[in-house]
Write a structure and sequence with these properties.
heterotrimer, A alpha/beta, B mainly alpha, C mainly alpha, A: alpha/beta, Rossmann fold, 2 domains, seven-stranded mixed β-sheet, five-stranded parallel β-sheet, 15 helices, 15 strands, C: mainly alpha, transmembrane helix (chain B), L-phenylalanine transmembrane transporter activity (chain B)
């Protein structure tokens, strides 16, 4: 009886003296560094809030962030230290698919650790998961490229663009998004005038721009990251390219707008996943602004927050900091008909209460509702953004139903 | 096509400016300086720093995107780049001179290039920057040809610089000494030329031209810590095509490389463009390793 | 086996793979005085060559021959040798620095091919799901890693012993003669160009071979693995270990790779957030400083060239 009491008090008191670690592999330095640090902060925010809500399974959470320097060999090494030395049950990241993939195949899957990426959108993961190569340990909180391409093709049709040039970054992200866009556009009766790849971090993209201008396109779909994208967009406009621009999700950054000049972007429309309206999104945005003093504009922030939150809730739900348990618990706390909980300390507190009572929970996150399919992919809502009065603004939103309908139209 | 020609000449003229300095150092100091391209980066960023100190932009000159301050900044950049070159020579290259393996000095320049590039990255950050954030719109001058007013300035400025350099090398004592040393070092020493003075001026001229190239590049394209690194191969190709030590050859070589890069997009996808200088280089090395205007003396020095 | 030991095994596999690269480079620089500025290019050729030969078939792609791993690695090494031959034949009869320029150029070109020639290399997405040799024989990933470490360690040892024998053999003495006094070597009837070409091609073959081993372990290949910075890292390993010394080359590979992976963590923890995106620059500056300062003040490297190889001070 006495012993039982002591055990009871031990579990509540242990929040201070036990610790679980959660790992993240992100590009803090290297070619993605411009966005990497902030993404790291988004993960930290989720962990801090969860700790404030009482930690996971009564333990304080330690957030171990490691730098992959934008290169796979360093990323794999970083993930390996997280798994073997820090004993993390979950690895968040990486940013580039080219880093996430070797981490997945040579570290997390063999070690039965769950990996949740905020930012890797390559279709190869879906293929790998479908063929059983991930054993279910792979998840990502941003939608794959296909829905984005389909929505963008619809926007192009609405705008009446008939002959669209595509300039895309020669990375897994750019290659797959550009191809999906071409397929979707042609299925909707439009035409892609040219597909021009550019290599990252070049000083000039004039040759690429010239080559894309050849087909006299009436619009440009630019698939790029902010810095290189600004270079390409400047040269495009400068050399007489149309200002009817379609911009990919990674370009939704103040850095891009400032470098190109807002006055040239008044006709541009961009796409981004995530930030739909609603209390869950507001909860994240408010928390972010309160902590960092700026609006959460930039790729990967919302998805990273959700990746961390989903991992922690799954740990709480499964009652154990174990990769396989996390894997099996993730769908319990996202899909389903449970009580909706939102980001933030209050939301996490409520979720912990419900889980303790054995009641179902449904996390609706910074990116809105999240449902992972069998391959660990999500389809999500999209927002359409533009530039008004020198600032990024939201022009329209596409909820999941509308996105699904658009995909159905193409698939017939 | 017309556009590609114009772009090729423009890039070529900037490569030429950088290649002049490189061919002089390769000819006179007798080593391939991998750090030379970083002088271009350094010069471009020093001008950016100088501009920032001079405060807001003065009214632009005519249709150009910049005003007088940029010209002043360019001069400051040339001075600062020369100082850097002299400092590197003093700290690294000179102490390594006379080491049994000549390649030690080439290898050290490889290490120095990395250092300079990373220092720039550290001070100025990795994202693209511009001398003026206002976007200049190219003017259509012929069907299928658009040119930025700044580009005309670049071309004009390059031509003036090359012509002045030509007179310097043809008419002044120092210039003649430099040419002599570059084209035939043994003969020059016999003629009693003070090599130390010549070497110092070689660094100053090479670095200044690199700084000018950097500013002009930054003006028409943008500033990035990698601009020099990406120009390194084109520079070497230009020098070898023109013949090591040959200033006129470097200019011609620069134009050939610039045009070849620009026109290559009609044959191969633009993403392979960076390999074009290497292909040209390989062809020259197999077919005529002395370059078009080079004497057998340099390439055959083995 | 978990925890630190498992990580150590993993770390050593990568470090020993690099040590084979460093020994290949050492043959070129330490023993022959050839400056290879494009190490990463030859490493990439070996890696991609192996990947294409052993990889599964892909729709609409070249390669995917599904060959056994040993054949794949040897094929990759042979391709690296071929690349070395192309550059070597063009430059080795000319001024020495032409080799440096040409190797720098071929590395950039190889990177472009890796990134853009999608039918062969998988382009930016790389080649995935490459078979890892004998994976199904082992019950757990930890055992497999231990096995792979054994393979890499034995191969590194074989390379080490073979090189040690080679440099003390008559061929090695000619190598030294060419390096130290070309005219004398020529007067003894040795063709310096041919000797240099042999050394260069053999060195690149080893570098390509290590590329194949790397692929066999990671099971994946992408252009991101072959960035120019790797060339500098390999050079730092050689310079720290001491050129002309194969044992130093191995120690340098382990030491520098260890520092590199740890310093990233250190920098990300020490630096204030607003400077973190530049933290990588600091790491690279350290590498650059290491190279330049060692050349200036400790030309024999931290371990140094052994007396038996050369009684003259200084690297050559």
């Amino acid at each position: 009886m006495v012993a039982g009491l002591q055990v009871g008090t031990a579990t509540t008191a242990s929040a201070q003296d036990c610790q679980v670690s959660i790992g993240a592999v992100l590009s803090i330095t290297g070619s993605m560094a411009a966005i990497g640090s902030a993404i790291g902060d988004a993960g930290q925010l989720a962990v801090d809030q969860f700790n404030e809500a009482g930690g996971v399974n009564g333990c304080q959470i330690r957030y171990v962030l490691r730098d992959d320097q934008g290169s796979p060999n360093v990323g794999v090494d970083a993930a390996k230290t997280l798994v073997e030395i820090e004993n993390v049950p979950v690895v968040l990241g990486a940013i580039q698919s080219g880093v996430s993939l070797p981490v997945l195949t040579s570290v997390t899957v063999p070690a039965k650790v769950t990996q949740i990426s905020c930012c890797s959108s390559a279709p190869s993961f879906t293929d790998l998961a479908a063929s059983g190569g991930t054993d279910g340990y792979w998840f990502r909180t941003l939608p794959t490229d296909r829905p984005q391409a389909v929505v963008m093709a619809n926007i192009a049709r609405e705008k009446g663009y008939k002959n669209i040039a595509v300039i895309y970054v020669n990375s897994d992200y750019g290659v797959s998004l550009s191809r999906q866009f071409k397929a979707a556009t042609e299925a909707l009766g439009g035409q892609v005038a040219s597909m021009t790849a550019y290599n990252q971090e070049q000083a000039s993209y004039r040759a690429e721009v010239n080559s894309a201008l050849q087909g006299e396109p009436d619009a440009l779909f630019l698939i790029a990251f902010p810095a290189d994208g600004a270079t390409a967009a400047r040269e495009w406009i400068s050399f007489g390219g149309t200002q009817n621009m379609l911009l990919s999700n990674a370009l939704r950054a103040d850095e891009f707008v400032d470098a190109v000049g807002a006055q040239y972007l008044s006709n541009a429309v961009g796409i981004d996943n995530a930030q739909v309206e609603g209390p869950s999104v507001d909860a994240f945005n408010t928390a972010w602004s309160a902590k960092f003093g700026s609006a959460p504009n930039g790729p990967g922030l919302h998805t990273m927050y959700d990746a961390a939150a989903v991992a922690l809730l799954a740990m709480e739900q499964g009652g154990e900091a174990n990769g396989t348990v996390v894997r099996d618990s993730i769908r319990l706390i996202t899909g389903g008909e449970g009580e909706v909980v939102n980001p933030g300390v209050e939301g996490f507190k409520r979720a912990k209460e419900l889980i303790a009572q054995g009641k179902p929970v449904r996390y609706v996150g910074a990116t809105g509702p999240i449902t992972f399919d069998a391959n660990g992919d999500v389809t999500g809502p999209y927002l359409i953004w533009g530039v008004k009065d020198d600032a990024l603004t939201t022009l329209d939103t596409w909820d999941s139903a509308r996105v699904d309908a658009a995909i159905a139209e193409i698939d017939g | 096509m017309l556009q590609a020609l114009a772009d090729g000449i423009l890039t070529g003229s900037i490569i030429a400016l950088g290649a002049i300095g490189l061919t002089l150092t390769m000819g006179i100091l007798r080593f391939a300086n991998f750090a030379h391209a970083e002088m271009i980066t350094w010069g471009a960023y020093m001008a950016l720093g100088a501009l920032a100190l001079m405060g807001p932009f003065m009214a632009p000159l005519g249709a150009l995107s910049f005003g007088l301050p940029l010209i002043i900044a360019m001069v400051i950049a040339a001075v600062l780049t020369s100082l850097l070159a002299l400092m590197i020579d003093h700290l690294v290259f000179r102490p390594l001179h006379g080491r049994p393996n000549d390649m030690t000095i080439v290898f050290s320049s490889f290490g120095v290039s990395l250092l300079v590039r990373m220092v720039v990255l550290l001070i100025f950050g990795g994202s693209a920057q511009y001398y003026s954030n206002t976007l200049q719109i190219a003017v259509p001058v012929a069907p299928g040809l658009r040119i930025l007013p700044d580009q005309l300035f670049v071309l004009g400025f390059t031509i003036v610089t090359v012509i002045s350099l030509h007179f310097f090398l043809q008419r002044t004592r120092l210039g003649l000494a430099m040419r002599a040393l570059a084209e035939n070092p043994t003969l020059a020493r016999v003629n009693g030329i003070d090599t130390r003075v010549v070497i110092r001026w070689t660094w100053v001229i090479g670095a200044s031209l690199a700084a000018v190239a950097g500013v002009l590049y930054g003006l028409t394209v943008q500033l990035r810590p990698e601009i020099g690194f990406h120009l390194l191969l084109p520079l070497f190709a230009a020098v070898i095509i023109g013949g090591v030590g040959n200033v006129f050859g470097a200019v011609v070589g620069g134009l050939i490389v610039g045009l070849a890069e620009s026109l290559s997009v009609f044959i191969i996808p633009p993403s392979y463009k960076l390999a074009v200088p290497f292909i040209i280089l390989l062809i020259v090395l197999y077919v005529r390793p002395t370059g078009i205007f080079g004497s057998a003396h340099h390439a055959g020095a083995k | 086996m978990t925890g630190f030991a498992a990580y150590l095994v993993f770390f050593l596999i990568i470090a020993l793979t690099y040590s084979i690269v460093v020994m290949g480079l050492n043959l070129q620089w330490g023993f022959t005085g050839l400056f290879n500025a494009g190490v990463v290019g030859f490493f990439a050729v070996g890696a991609y060559g192996t990947a294409v030969l052993i990889g599964p078939e892909r729709a609409g792609a070249i390669g995917g021959f599904g060959l056994p791993f040993p054949i794949g690695v040897l094929g990759g090494a042979a391709l690296a040798a071929l690349a070395a031959l192309i550059v070597g034949l063009a430059t080795l009869r000319l001024r020495e620095e032409y080799l440096a320029i040409a190797t720098f150029g071929i590395a950039i070109s190889i990177q472009l091919i890796a990134l853009n020639f999608e039918a062969l290399t998988g382009g930016a997405m790389g080649l995935i799901s490459l078979p890892r040799p004998m994976l199904d024989v082992f019950s757990s990933p930890a055992h497999y890693n231990l096995f792979y470490l054994g393979v890499v360690a034995i191969l590194a040892l074989v390379v080490y012993l073979a090189l040690e024998r080679a440099v003390t053999s008559p061929w090695g003495r000619v190598l030294k003669a060419v390096r130290e006094d070309e005219t004398a070597a020529r007067s003894l009837g040795k063709n310096p160009v041919l000797i240099r070409l042999q050394s260069f091609v053999l060195g690149c073959t080893l570098i390509g071979f290590a590329g194949g081993l790397y692929v066999g372990f990671i099971g994946y290949v992408s252009p991101l693995d072959f960035l120019p910075i790797l060339t500098f890292q390999i050079w730092a390993m050689l310079i720290v270990g001491g050129s002309g010394n194969n044992r130093g080359a191995i120690a340098g590979a382990i030491g520098v790779w260890g520092l590199w992976t740890m310093s990233g963590l250190l920098i990300s923890q020490v630096l204030p957030v607003q400077f973190q995106s530049q933290g990588g620059a600091i790491q690279v500056i350290l590498i650059g400083l290491l190279i330049v300062l060692t050349l200036l003040f400790r030309p024999r490297g931290l371990i140094g060239e052994r007396e038996t190889v050369s009684k003259h001070a200084g690297p050559r």
